[in-house]
Design goal:
With about 80 residues, the protein is mainly alpha-helical. Helix content is about 80%, strand content about 0%. Helix 1 packs antiparallel against helix 2 and helix 2 packs antiparallel against helix 3. The longest helix has about 30 residues.
Length: about 80
Amino acid sequence: MKRARQAIGLTVANKSDKNMLKTLSKKVEKAVAEKNKDNAGTALNDVVSAIDKAARKGLIHKNTAARKVSRLTKLVNSMLPSEAA
């Protein structure tokens, strides 16, 4: 019985945290679409921090977290001018 009650509360908390990750990711994508470098950088820092925290808590798998961070970072870096090698 106690386990069932706990599961309900944890499900709500996890759902809220996952929705927050999606919202933060969308902020990064929106800033990139608007070509706003300052907002994109700030939003990227926020979402990376949130993703890492979610991975530490076990909300998402560490490889999933790494993949999300990598893709968002690549997206933000695509806005920046590439340097000649």
